[in-house]
Amino acid sequence: MTTTHLHPREVLDLISPDLRAQLVKDVRKDWPELTDDLGERGVSQMAAYLAATVTTEEPLTPSLRVDRFWHEFLKRSVPYLAFSRALGVDYIHHVPNEDEGGSDPEAGRAAMAVTTTVIREAGFTVDAEFWPNEGAADCSQCHAGCTDSPVGGK
User: Fold this and answer.
1) What pTM did the predictor assign?
2) What pLDDT is stored for residue 132 in this prediction?
3) Burial grade of 112 (CB within 10 A; 0-12, 13-18, 19 or more)
4) Exposure string (b/e) for 41-56, b if CB count within 10 Å is 16 or more?
């Protein structure tokens, strides 16, 4: 896999202050109690997650909180595409799980553990408030089934 290996600060700087503020505003529409601080941290966790996805062939899964930010970033396709390309890939695809059998909490915990490990290995800090396996209170998504596309889209 060909990727650009950027320092975590460089990755976070790929999202401008104006875009960060817009993403927080977008997420706040469905999460009205989101504070500016938590929103900023959410954008950073999303960026770390996306940067980590390009370092592995293993599919990674976002937490519910991180996925909220990712969904809003996807809607802003021009900066999202530029972000993906700056990471050295054409596009980081969002792949929902269409399995109608329901979620598997054990698989979800394992997927979150793998994801947070890869984020740390990529040099990022994992913010526990955004990851159920790290202590986040909002853990309704033990396995929502969304992943990146490590094989098909890069």
Assistant:
1) 0.84
2) 86
3) buried
4) bbbbbbbbbbbbbbbb
